[in-house]
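Give me the fold.
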Amino acid sequence: MKTYYTIIKVIPNSLVKDSISVGMVLSDDISFQIRFSENKVRIAKSLLGDNRKHLDFIIQQIEKTLLSVNDEHDTGIFNFENKINASYFNYLNRYSNNIVQYERPSYIKEDNTTTTFNNLFRLFIDNEIKSEDTLVKADLELKNREIINAKLISRVKDKVHTNIKFSDKILPTLYFNYELDCIGLNGVFTGAKSINFNVSEVTLQKEISNYYAIASILENNYNKYGSNNNFYLISDEPSSIGSKEHQLWEKLRNGKKFNLIHTEEADLVAQKIEATGAAKFLQFD
């Protein structure tokens, strides 16, 4: 089977024939790979006016239709030639007058593989592709955020400041902006910051240094320096054992400034807030 690709375009203005390449299909008439660029779709929507509301639905239908062919092929339902093939895309190229249109299929020598698809997608559509590893990490980060919200934020949001963004308007001596998951005061501070350790060492160093600075400024401003304050760092152990990120995680776990806990232990912060009677203490305009 010959492999071919088809570029999917959005036509914001049919009169001037302007187009934005938003997606791509790669196929050998047996299976299909398809992806749309979030960035390009966003740009297209900004130019479509009232028609923007139709674009998401059209994209969903395209994906659903092509991926259903894969499902039917995998389960052996198709025992005849697919109706969706190179000839079908040629037909769409000639006669489609929708806001979404297709380029004429272009044949290549490579096989229909993920590597081939990614290379073509970077070349013709968008050079910023989220890898499977990136998507897995993003899903994990979202899951961890849901756990923290359930075990900590929802439990203490009426007692202490939650998801608070610090700036020089709140702390005049602060020279950067920083967000804490929560912070309260009653004799001692009790606060928490969640950090993802599966990022670069430079990013980690900046995040932790800024957290240290925030904690120190609060202690000095409220004369609580040296007190038995409870500053929690919520983070799971980095996956790359022995890496610089993992070494930093180990140092923090054995350090004295922060109480390092896992995401699943976020309720320990809520328990400490309740035990100390920590409350909101900052004044806002």
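The chain has two domains: 3-128, 133-276.
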